[in-house]
Amino acid sequence: MSPDPFRPVLPADFRWSAATSGFQVEGSRTADGRGRSIWDDFLEAPGAIKDGSTADPSCDSYRRTEDDVALLAGLGLDRYRFSIQWARIQPEGKGPANTIALDHYSRFVDALLAAGVTPFPTLFHWEMPSAVEASGGWLSRDTAERFAEYTALVAERLGDRVKHWYTLNEPAMTTLQGYAVGTLAPGKQLLFEALPSVHHQLLAHARAVQVLRASGGVQLGLPNNHTRVLPLHDTTEDQQAAGIYDLIHNRIFSEPLLAGNYPDLESLGLPAMPVQDGDLAAIAGSIDFYGINFYNPTTVTAAAAGSPIPFDIVPTPGAPVTDFGPEWPIMPSALRDFLIELHAAHPQLPPVIIGENGAAFAEPARAGYVQDDDRIEYLSGHISAIAEAISAGVPVQEYTVWSLLDNWEWAEGYTQRFGLVHVDFDTGTRTPKASYHWYRELIARLRGTGSASRF
């Protein structure tokens, strides 16, 4: 028997959403003249993808939009977070728009609106044209301007109907995993020399916001991956290690957006940000909401002497884990505490949107109903944590489940399943899991009692 739905105390206008990303679900790799992306390059490297798979056809969502819209409407969601692939719109990362691709996304927006679901697209979900990376990628300031040009092409076509936008997804993961240690595309291993990519991503976000506001956008922001950092031991060394990791995973992104400055990097021997006049003012004034993707806390301890990195990430003592193992501990209270601490550090915190929250658990590959009580427990625990944070004064306005569908999970391939809906990747068959029905009932019950209402 699945856990009973619960009734957390949430604002009357609290909103509900679910998310996917284009590269992970669309398939149809070359259907509309889409160009090559950094993930096409990355997945071809021997051993880069755990199961040796590719993202095509994955969920085949490019061709099965009606199926996905029906699932979204069935949940009773307020919004759907999906992403637009830059390499579909600009196959070489510059020049005029690919109108075939824009036609596709335009039809999809219309289908969502017809179903009563507000489209909330992401313009960059880790997918960059290979040609842009070849010109420097996020290590180059010019990429911010190229991203603004791409944004203008999308906004010109969709801005009459789309008013809510995410710019870049999880810049922390792009910097730390994509450029610092190389476990995600583009696969660089620059360690702390990757940090300039932080500033260029935030600058790209600010440039894109200027474009979107000019096209009538009304709610604009970016969702960063955040984590509550815990020292393994209550020692000066571990506290210092936790502080450094908190700086490069959380504060280096939050403080420019919320306070207009970067934390002190040079005192720690880290590279200074390549800031030019006007950059920080543009970044600080660029968000209408603060987006947070949250999955787990991170426990660190001081690294051994001589290590090029002053911290080691270790298992969180006593915490259960998802199918990812020790690197993804389950601790809903960490989300509550992170939100409360962020609000204490920034009392003028703008409205907060949880842009992703979810968990992967082992499930059958073949089509069929999945009684995923572990996922229901994970989601209910984190929604309760959000309710507690709201009671403490944190202005959280929206919650987004990752993910609507099982999908191609980046370097993990098809080995990790996050979906509310099971996908048989051989046939494309979609089967709502127990968590899908639980989420639908939760939304309906809260609305029915007046605890929540549609946006």
Automatic annotation (TrEMBL):
Keyword Magnesium attached: no
Under the heading SUPFAM superfamilies, the entry gives: (Trans)glycosidases (SSF51445)
- Residues reported in the UniProt entry to bind substrate: 24, 125, 169, 295, 402, 409-410
What's the domain of life for this entry? Bacteria
Q: Which Enzyme Commission numbers does its entry carry?
A: 3.2.1.21
This protein's UniProt keywords: Carbohydrate metabolism, Cellulose degradation, Glycosidase, Hydrolase, Polysaccharide degradation
Which GO CC terms are listed, alphabetically?
cytosol
For this protein, what reaction is catalysed? Hydrolysis of terminal, non-reducing beta-D-glucosyl residues with release of beta-D-glucose
What is the name listed in the Swiss-Prot or TrEMBL entry for this protein? Beta-glucosidase
